Structure prediction request, 506 residues.
Amino acid sequence: MPIIGKLLKKTTEFSARRNALKGLDFKDQIKVLSKILKFAQETKFGYHYDFQSILDSENMVEEFQKAIPIRDYDQFYQTWLHRCLDGEADVIWPGKIKYFALSSGTTGSPSKRIPVTKQFIRSFQRNTLKQFTATADLNLSDGFYQKSLIAVGGSSKPEKKGNHYEGDLSGILKKHTSVVLLPLTKPDAETAAIKDWNKKLDRMVEKAPEWDISTIAGIPSWCIMLMERIIERYKVDSIHDIWPNLELYLSGGVYVEPYLKRFEKVCGKKVHILNTYLASEGYFAYQKRAESNGMQLLLKSGIFFEFVPFNRDNFDEYGNLKPEAKALTVDEVIEKEDYALVISTNAGLWRYLVGDLVQFVDLERREIRISGRIKQYLSLVGEHLSLDNINMAIMKTGEKLNVAIPEFCLYADAREQRHYWCFGTETPLENTDLVMKTVDEFLCELNDDYASARKYDTLKLPISYQTDVKNFYKFMEERGKLGSQNKFPRVMNEHQAKEWRLFLGR
Prediction:
């Protein structure tokens, strides 16, 4: 086994034993907050909010929360971040910030520019290595660690914009790949630098037989699309005919469940799937135990976490945070409650509202799952339908009717008081009405408010239609959102729904 493989394997086994014996404690979060406050205390943000007084106070967390308001991206951009983009130094983090990750989120949303610092990049590198500790109990082959990892992401050539560079986070990280992982990481530098998504996919398909891949990482839709193109190009039965040593898929960005049938179809043998929670704003958590669907929060990696209960006390009916909203720390949360995630990071984001909803599935292990998005839920008539409910209903419907629905979206029609659903499939559904009826029934089981709204007909019978799954990707391509970290919105707002209907000619 090459020396890099041996080092990775030893690191994996040692870290797994160490973490099994060492519990995660809130003290780790106190240390993180203290460290980033000290690091940024002489910035303009630090002087404005008097970080020194916060550090000197008897209750640092309480004073920190009192002093600094929670902000979403637009609010943070308008008050502080725009100055960094203009090239001003020492605003939210020491020095000038050279890189900004473009986070376009869901289709139709304008791109956000998220700061990326040296400390942020180092945290990602460390966490990437640590994530391999989660493979210790998977019974992977002896040669696993000497094979390559392919990351299906953006271009590694960020564009210069005035005083800074900006591009996909995956591309920025590729440019700064750890020297330990560099020989094991694909695609090659030339392929990684290609900006056009389809051209990049074509190049990866061309190079695929030259690579010995054991791990694939990325958003499900794009990883599966790559493997499907490889299978089609070389006229083989499965991806294992090209990559016989593929054993692990690191999934991130969206719920993987709707894609499982399609994923299994491209595989010739079992591939372990581990979920990862990373975003342009940070590397938050990853799945360490195969037997659990929870991902363990990374409490010592430069991010201070807060959690705002997602309820009427803290959010209005449009998902906007109320001024009096109270955030909890990791030692105050309870299991199976929705929380809006708030972060303060070693890239200069301070009490930043990410937009994701999470639930704790194991408090002792600090394991979470993503349960939805603050803005991606429907409450047209008080049904309070979450993205978690929606994904679960689709998954249960697929299992019950033995159908695969890898892509879907829905939107509300206020005039008709009903939801409209669109199912994206590879082959036409035999009975779209039955699928919709089954989804509706499962939603009633999963959500009492939805069940009540449907029972008393305040929410009318949902209407559905079906389209080829390729239309979802064509729609994104037309808007320059194809590939990498871009995600199709499951719950569409009025503007997105109008564009989608026009695109489909409805």
